[in-house]
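[job 4471] stage=fold_predict status=RUNNING
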Amino acid sequence: MKLEEKTAVITGGTKGLGLAIAREFLREGARVVCASRSEGDVKELREEYPGRTHYVQVDVSDPQAVRELMRTVAEDFGHIDTVVANAGVNRDGKVESLDPGDWQTMLDTNLTGVFLSVQAAVPYLKESGGSVITVSSCMGSRVAVGTAGYAASKAAVEMFTKVAAMELGRSGVRVNSLAPGILDEGMGRELADNERAWEAYSRRFALGRAGEAREAARAAVFLASEDASYVNGEILGVNGGLLWA
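[job 4471] inference complete, writing structure tokens
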């Protein structure tokens, strides 16, 4: 039980990778607050882990809402030990045709949402000696046509993570990033449903398969646990050896 008695806040924690991370944290004994715009699939977690699974509605691009989220969790449970800044959206589009509104939506959620979540949690994480896990992507360090907004936002998350790690390390707060490859959840599942795109991408898997959300979630458990007590400012790629042209 690597996270027993720990309290974790996971943004975007009601579906996809966020839900998988929530499940693994619960298996390791944590109390988990899934924060998202909608309740998604968190009901089954509540039934499986009653009393330790909670949902709070929040828009991570709203500074006041995020501050209120962290304050409420700290007051209700006494401490915050881990924040997983996972909420993210994707809008495909080439540079010449990408809608400016879609660009802004990705930045607001994928980047500003991470910044606001971390900033609001810092006072509580300093008290607990806790940690932050931002969620980037393999696309944060690789070029693919049509991903200008998403890739740019994730690359920015990685640099934000490194700067935050340097600034907060002396306060006992570790900041790392999880950079999953193509998984069987969320955006990865959408890719797999696109036969033409899947044919191209599937040839790039060094292990011959896409990843499972649980495999990435186990890496998040590591980053949140004492096993990673001297890991700070790192971008942990969980992609099975994703080859790229």
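[job 4471] summary: The radius of gyration is 17 Å.
[job 4471] exit 0
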